[in-house]
Amino acid sequence: MHAMQYELTLPADYDMGVIRGRVARVGHLLDDWDGLGFKTYLLRERGVHGSPVNQYAPFYLWNTVEGMNRFLWGGAFQGLVNDFGRPEVLGWSGLAYEEGDAAASPAVVAVRRRQPITEGGELAAVMEDAVGETRRLAGEDGAVLAAAAVDPHRWELVHFSLWEHDTPKAEGDVFQVLHLSAPGRAVLPRGRQW
Question: How far apart are CA 63 and CA 193, in angstroms?
């Protein structure tokens, strides 16, 4: 399991209807993408849910590296690059994944929390805490799903969750969910990933 995200931070006066229209036109193209667990088409609007920026920031959870590579190098990603330039693509190795009590509900918002892993801590304990946080988030009322992943280059954890309502019980950046492509969500491995 591999997590991936890129962020397009847009001008404060940017018409976010352009992003909504783009997702309405192309969002379905990954609805059956082989190797993809899910892609959430995410939007932050300045002033909504405390966001200081306008941003388009899709988040992916991949079942296979081959599916991810086919997306990045096989042409699908090039459309975004042609329209907005080449963003930095963040990647994390999967630690844990859980379905929530509201797994069958449509997701309204997503919460992403990135946090550095400080020096001196026992790595096994830090990772177990991340697994526990994933279980806790998935158990909260209204949780659709929760995941945790780690970037051992930057020593950074990411916690990601989807919610059926716009009052999530998670801390972090809150995004509106415009579309969810989830062709391999049912086969994402549950629980701890090692």
Answer: 12
Read off φ and ψ for residue 142, nearest 5 degrees.
Answer: 90, 0
Rounded to the nearest angstrom, the gap between the alpha carbon of residue 52 and the centroid of all alpha carbons in its chain is 19
The owner of tokens 């001196």 is 120
pLDDT digit string, tens, across residues 123-133 = 999 999 999 99
**Claim: this prediction has a pTM higher than 0.85:** yes
Interval 64-121: pLDDT, tens: 999 999 999 999 999 999 999 999 999 999 999 999 999 999 999 999 999 999 998 8
Query: How many folded domains does the chain comprise?
Result: 1
Residues in CB range of 21: below 8 A, 6 or more apart? none
3-class DSSP assignment, residue 71? helix
**Distance between the two ends of the chain, CA-based, in angstroms?**
11
Q: How many CB atoms lie within 10 A of CB 81?
A: 11
DSSP H helical ranges for 110-151: 123-139
d(CA 127, CA 33): 30
Range of the domain at 166: 2-192
CATH number of the domain encompassing residue 139: 3.30.70.100
The string of DSSP letters for 6-22 reads E-EEE-TT--THHHHHH
Q: Which of 138, 115, 142 is nearest to 127 (CA)?
A: 115
